[in-house]
Amino acid sequence: MRIHSQGGNFGRRIVVKRGDPYGAWEVIRELEEIDNIRRILCVCRLCGERGIVMLKTLTTGASKRCIRCGSRGRRRRRDGPRKLDGGGGSG
Ligand SMILES: [Zn+2]
Over the range 61-85, which residues count as b (16 or more CB within 10 Å of their CB) and which as e? Predict the structure, then answer.
């Protein structure tokens, strides 16, 4: 028989530390959680732009740089399946 520790534990909790690299993003600090969504304040090391990125977006590699660098560095790409994750795009 195992004893579960108290408290709401939803799986393992990812910990981000200041200076952690995620692509071009570098973690500054974690912000307040809203609606169970953890948000990380990051700085784009390519241009110095700061941005708030959802933790999930960071850890899955969905976002690797700021919007400006992302659009600037866009190149021709073949049509591929575009993955849209859920709805609710206000924020
Ligand atoms: Zn940038």
Answer: eebbbbeebeeeeeeeeeeeeeeee
pLDDT for residue 3 is more than 90: no
| 40 domain residue, yes or no | yes
CA of 49 to the centre of ligand 1 (A): 5
Q: Which domain covers residue 62, as residue numbers?
A: 21-68
**Best CA proximity match to 14, nearest among 5, 63, 33:** 33
Q: Is position 77 within any domain?
A: no
Task: Indicate the residue type of 5.
Answer: S
Residue 48 located in a structural domain: yes
Place of tokens 């659009």: 71
Distance (angstroms) between ligand 1 centre and the Cα of 30 equals: 19
Domains in the chain, number: 1
In a domain, 26, yes or no: yes
pTM, two decimal places: 0.66
